[in-house]
Amino acid sequence: MRVTMTVNGRPREDDVEPRLLLAHYLREVCGLRATNIGCDTTSCGACTVLLDGESVKSCTVLAAQADGRSVTTLEGLAADSGEMHPVQQAFHEQHGLQCGYCTPGMVMAIVSLLRENPSPTEAEVRTGLEGNICRCTGYHNIVKAALSAAASSGEGASK
């Protein structure tokens, strides 16, 4: 089947199998590697992307369901000039990663969270990240990064 969508601000049109998951479409068809696949069951959140601005776990969304829609991955957050998105910058400054496997999904979940709630409390950040698992950091610096991004952007790190 033919799908047409915007991926990271660029229009795409591709033939895909009807059963192809969005995560696999992004990685295999689009060649975007930041969207990680950790569980295929929505448990870990490593595959989180924005679909029309809302965070979704792309391992349980079909590429066909994204037809006519807009998808943003970690690769699409930075400005064309190379300037990092405020959440990416905060992760860098606050050391919000260790192995990095969960980082793309965490960043995308935080971008979505801050669009909904530009000034979250620590508890609200922790609640907002419940669907994303990090096996390395204990979340302390990830939460610090989210709060830092919120404080630095005035509008909750929206691009």
Protein architecture, described:
Strand 1 and strand 2 form a beta hairpin. This protein is of the alpha+beta class and 159 residues long. Strands 2-1-5-3-4 form a five-stranded mixed β-sheet, with helices on one face. The termini are far apart. It is globular and about 45 Å long. The protein is 33% helix and 14% strand. It is built from five helices and five strands; from the N terminus they run ββαβββαααα.
Low-confidence stretches: 155-159
Tally of extended strands?
5
Radius of gyration in whole Å, from Cα?
Answer: 15 Å
What count of helical segments does DSSP give? 5
- Could you state the oligomeric state of the chains shown? single chain
| Secondary structure category | alpha+beta
Which descriptor suits the 3D outline? globular
Task: Classify the beta-strand content into a percent band.
Answer: 5-15%
What is the distance, rounded to the nearest whole angstrom, between the alpha carbons of the first and last residues?
A: 32 Å
Q: How would you write the strand order of the largest sheet?
A: 2-1-5-3-4
Major sheet characteristics: 5 strands, mixed
* Helix and strand run: EEHEEEHHHH
Give the % helix.
25-40%
Mean pLDDT: 93
What's a quick, concise take on this entry?
By secondary structure, this protein is α+β, with helices and mostly antiparallel strands.
